[in-house]
Amino acid sequence: MSTAASPQRERGVREESKPSLRTCWLVFARRRYDEALYQVGTVTADDPAMAVIFAQRDDRRTAQPGADRDRLLSDARPTTAGLFETATDQEAIDKAVAAAAPVAAERADLAMVNTLDAALRQPMYALLSSLADNKYVLGRRYAEWCTGAPMLESAVAAAAMAQDELGHARSFYPLLRGFPNARDVVQMEEKGWQQRPTNAMACLDRSFATWSEFLAANLLVDTAFTTLLSAAVSSSYEPLRQRAAKIVQEEAGHWVHGAGWVRRAPAHLSSALAAVWDDAFTWFGQADDPVLGPLAEAGILADKPEALRRNLRARLEPLLDEAEVGEPLFTRELPWSRWDPTVRRLSPAV
Amino acid sequence: MTPDSDDTLARLWSALREVEDPEIPVSLVDMGLIVSIDYAGSTQTAQLKITYTAMGCPAMDMIQDDIRARLLREPDVSAVDIDVVWDPVWTHRRLSQSARETMRDLGVSV
After folding, report:
1. Interface pTM (ipTM) of the complex?
2. Is A165's CB within 8 Å of B89's CB?
3. Hey, is the C-beta of A252 within 8 angstroms of any chain B C-beta?
């Protein structure tokens, strides 16, 4: 079962007999010769030589030059372009605007904004827009792996989690209409929610190039959002409270998926986890965060930024320590000099 | 609540039992999606609170359209207001016994 080896990785394939027209091959990989082989997926091919070729290509999705979804967003705030340029025709833009229009179901939510203390409306808007954008973009990134995932079950998981995240985003966006003085409301009215500068994490700006990057976002980024929403299940702000409880319920499956993969292939994930670590852990802001701080003081969130960060760590630590990848990550110094608390993003590292 | 209102409410509940989930041949009532129904006689408005099994449900608009279409066939219903709520959080415990039996017959594990 030997194969061609790359300088970085040696891999092998083994025939798995299945009652089908083509043979399904298990793909194994390892970084060094003295490491054990571990399964990274399956490929279908007619013979071992083709199976090796498919296996060597399958674990990395190369970005196509000029592809919009791989474009890095600069630190500058674009005036017209949003994160996705899919709505380039007028009909699609009209649909997006119509979808953002208030419907009867949101009337009670809109009225709730007026129950907020005036000083809390901007922080609440910032939090809701961050949650909406992050869940929308994360859902899109998950969806990009509905095909091409290492195995069928992974593709199904990607599709299911994408649907969940997009549903969460769909529930948050209409709430933003209740803030008439919000910065982006004019642009949103004209072009729809996605045609405006994003408030999503910088690590979500481009597609996940590998399955490891997908899993890192699943485990760290997704769990960061869930950690905050767990602190909102008893929120005094009704629209947030209702959504938080349902989202936390649905996110249980996302955690199981990410945790399961960490246990299977921890070494494979180390660099990917490090790449999104700062985004996930800075998202709660610092102790004097102008968004989460006031909301926690007012009892709208049960925990302040530092407590949220501790909660996230407490969730991750047992799992990552068991996988022996936790130590270098938990001692990282967070790049607060690059943190923008208003849009809740890290600017690019110099 | 007047006797007429009680009758109207009972009739509305009965009407909603005719509206099925788009994916499973079970009524929305048996699915546990209908949280509450109120009726405002002065405006002949049926006021519903509904929930969904999942926030990403792709059939939300379809289900609401089906609800409106059925209830507007009632002679004393001129308008239907639907509020989507996420509390109570839907779980399989909201399924009726008949819904469970139907789903098991279809091979759906509940």
Report:
1. 0.90
2. no
3. no
